[in-house]
Design a protein that fits this description.
With 748 residues, this protein is mostly beta strands. 3% of the residues lie in helices and 57% in strands.
């Protein structure tokens, strides 16, 4: 079997850095300021809050840990202390520190409204944002408890969300059973999706540099541009809001050869702020869960064949704030990986992909700025360029020794987002312009013995644009409305060996209303229309002979509606949202049963589809140390073809997640998380739908807060078990999720 070819020498250095010696004991003349910071509305620990101390010639600081705690050693004197964080209103106190004494100062911080990468939201989890549509956030505390190496592992924290690793080895995220390639994925406001396929493998995006995740569902705002009828997600990078510096070190080891090391450094001085991070992770083949009955292509009983991975990524960001209120920032994200692709365990060998990715490389340069224009007008924008390189090695059989063909993909993409906002007497008027251009260069190299075939080269190019106008108005102290319209378009000036395609254009609508029924109850409703254009891969891609191109595909159009009700109290909240998507010209796939293409698949337009469902979220701060939250989604996905109704492929009817976090005395914390999936049907090679087994995946975690130790340590030691019950989770035929995994690590 093929083995990874690269090793990263940075691992040893990171592991060494993560084992730094404890600092010396505090001098007798030094005092200590310590305490805990909580969210005022929920009682949650406020994680990564900046604590900035200044006075008597001293300027220093720290950040709060996973339990919201901080500790700073200070010479005797009087100081001004500022606590600040993303989505939180700063607090300022004056404290006097005496030598040899410890002063404890606990406080709570309230949520503030803020601009988050072209989205105006109010911080908080599970839809506690004052918008007319569903907007949900995951904050730093929950992200840190998840111990996620990549952003795909954050999916359990998002209601009505499932993640699937498909037969190509790509890990894809879906909201509310949206169709493929319908979700826009952004990092600091720049689109991550690779336009050739309009998706990106989110398991390659590092989670360690993410401060907060924001998800928009339902009727999309004009701010997001084209092809987002299934929703949008934005990953916001970490920054410091106050002067100071902090460095995070993380090291992990686990079963199945899991190793991970990461370093993140953040700083702010004067008008400048910066972030730098690097991470290395590797694993062997994933464990195979019990009862994962795979008829074909699984020679080993303990490990899922060909699922090893190595990945190294780096991130750097610098920002500058001008005196007049303008801000600019430049970021660079680079990911480089090698990984195997699990073969489908239900497919007969001669119809199976035996693939590896010896190269998976993505580099993105992002620049963003916001500029106030007068007292009522602001302009913000983002521009980015990305280069994507991917090699696919196809092998003859499960031994992964005889190479039959290689496909080399090279993509260059440039994009821009411009958003202008004008304050009105009752609200705001927003003009949004989005555009991107992309070039896909594909080379197929055959290696079959005795073949006279030559390398084939194809070049494709696509332009996508969107422009829209949207108004939001507060027509009553308790009533907010939104209305907008947009035009999306695409052109494909280069189509490789295929005939030219005419440009497409489609119109969209947004509308919504929110009513605050009382201080605790709110209701909202939204409706709109949006389209999604076929990708170049759907039109022209053959996937190394697995697919038959479909150059005549038509765009997908959807009417989207939702209505929600929410109750918020001091220690608990609950919300429910009913949603309906009526989709026309749905893109699905079929398998040829006979003829020259027998066994191959082709994408086709169905008459349409309908997805109706209910999403329920709940949260309860039972005690200051016990937090219980969760979400349940039921939906009924159906498609229409030839007058008949049938199920939609690989769309769960039930999704549920529940978790409990308990902070014990003496620095201990416990977390349990359970995820249920059921009602999934998948189309087999005979175009017949099979029901997949339901699953209940349980994770457990224990942590010890190093802030409970003397001498100023700040960090945590943890251990966790993922899939404690070793249950087999299926979203696609023959592609089970991993079995039981054990990890342990330390953060400093």
């Amino acid at each position: 079997m093929h083995r990874p070819r690269v090793r990263c020498v940075v691992v040893g250095a990171m592991l060494l850095a993560a084992s730094v010696a404890a600092p010396a004991s505090w001098a007798q003349s030094t005092g200590v300021l310590r305490g805990r910071v909580l969210h005022a509305s929920t009682g949650d620990p406020a994680v990564r809050v900046n604590v900035h101390v200044q006075g008597d010639g001293v300027q220093t600081g720290t950040v709060t840990d996973a339990r919201g705690r901080y500790r700073i050693a200070l010479p005797p004197g009087t100081y001004r202390v500022v606590w600040s964080g993303v989505s939180l209103r700063p607090a300022v106190r004056e404290v006097t520190i005496a030598g040899g004494e410890t002063q404890t100062l606990d406080l709570t911080l309230t949520v503030r409204s803020y601009d988050l990468n072209e989205i105006v939201v109010e911080g908080g989890r599970f839809g506690r944002s004052k918008t007319t549509t569903t907007l949900q956030t995951v904050e730093a505390a929950a992200i840190q408890r998840q111990d996620a190496a990549d952003v795909s592992e954050l999916a359990p924290l998002l209601p009505a969300t499932h993640v699937q690793t498909n037969s190509r080895g790509q890990t894809i995220l879906y909201f509310r059973n949206a169709g493929d390639r319908q979700v826009g994925q952004f990092f600091d406001g720049a689109l991550l999706n690779i336009p050739w396929d309009n998706r990106v493998d989110i398991s390659m995006i590092p989670a360690g540099v993410v401060e907060e995740v924001t998800v928009a569902k339902g009727v999309p705002s004009v701010r997001y541009g084209a092809n987002v009828l299934g929703g949008a997600i934005n990953f916001e990078s970490r920054t410091l809001a106050e002067p100071g510096r902090t460095t995070d070190l993380r090291s992990e080891v686990g079963t199945a050869g899991h190793r991970r090391a990461a370093v993140t450094h953040l700083g702010r001085t004067g008008s400048w702020d910066y972030t730098a991070a690097v991470q290395y992770a590797e694993r062997g083949d994933l464990p195979l869960p019990q009862d994962a009955d795979l008829e074909f292509n699984q020679p080993e009983s303990e490990r899922r064949v060909n699922t090893d991975r190595q990945i190294v990524n780096g991130f750097a960001r610098a920002g500058y704030r001008f005196d007049g209120g303008a801000e600019v920032g430049v970021s660079l994200l680079h990911v480089e990986a090698e990984q195997g692709v699990a073969p489908e365990g239900n497919a007969v060998p001669d119809q199976t992909r035996y693939w590896r990715y010896p190269t998976w490389r993505k580099s993105v340069v992002m620049a963003s700025a916001q500029v106030p224009v007068g007292s009522k007008t602001s302009l913000r924008g983002a521009a980015w360029g990305s280069r994507f390189a991917q090699d696919i090695d196809q092998y003859q059989d499960i031994a992964y020794e005889t190479l039959t063909e290689t496909q080399e993909d090279r993509d260059l993409t440039g994009g821009v987002r411009l958003i202008g906002t004008q304050d009105l007497s009752l609200g705001t008027l927003t003009l949004a312009v989005n555009g991107l251009t992309t070039r896909h260069h594909q080379t197929n190299i055959p290696f079959a013995s005795g073949s006279a075939r030559e390398d084939s080269v194809s070049i494709y190019r696509q332009h996508i644009y969107s422009t829209g106008l949207e108004v939001e108005a507060q027509i009553h102290p308790r009533v907010q409305i939104r209305a907008g319209a947009s035009i999306d378009g695409t052109a494909t000036p280069e189509t490789g060996p295929f005939p030219d395609r005419d440009p497409f254009a489609a119109w969209g609508l947004t509308s919504g209303v929110r009513v605050d029924l009382s201080d605790r109850w709110s209701a909202r409703a939204a409706a709109g229309r949006k389209s999604r254009f076929p990708t170049m891969r759907e039109l022209f891609g053959a996937a190394l002979g697995k697919f038959v191109p479909a150059p005549n595909l038509q765009p997908v159009t959807a009417w989207i509606g939702e209505t929600g009700l929410e109750h918020r109290a001091q220690t608990w909240s609950v919300g429910a949202t009913a949603f309906l998507n009526r989709v026309y010209d749905t893109i699905d796939k079929r398998t040829f049963q006979s003829g020259p293409n027998a066994g191959k698949e082709q994408r086709v337009n169905l008459d349409g589809a309908r997805i109706v469902g209910v999403e329920v979220t709940a949260r309860w701060q039972a005690t200051p140390g016990l937090l219980v939250d969760g979400h349940v989604t039921w939906s009924r996905p159906r498609s229409f073809a030839g007058g008949d109704t049938q199920k939609l492929d690989e769309k769960p009817a039930w999704l549920a997640t529940g978790s409990a976090t308990y902070d014990l005395p003496l620095g201990l914390s416990l977390m349990g998380q359970a995820r249920y999936l059921g009602g999934v049907y998948a189309r087999n090679e005979q175009n017949v739908f099979e029901e997949l087994p339901e699953s209940l995946v349980v994770d457990a975690r224990v942590g010890y807060d190093l802030a409970a130790l003397p001498d100023g340590w700040n960090g945590e030691v943890f251990a966790r078990v993922d899939n404690l019950t070793d249950d087999a989770k299926f979203v696609g035929l023959g592609l089970p999720g991993p079995g039981r995994r054990v990890r342990a690590g330390v953060t400093l």
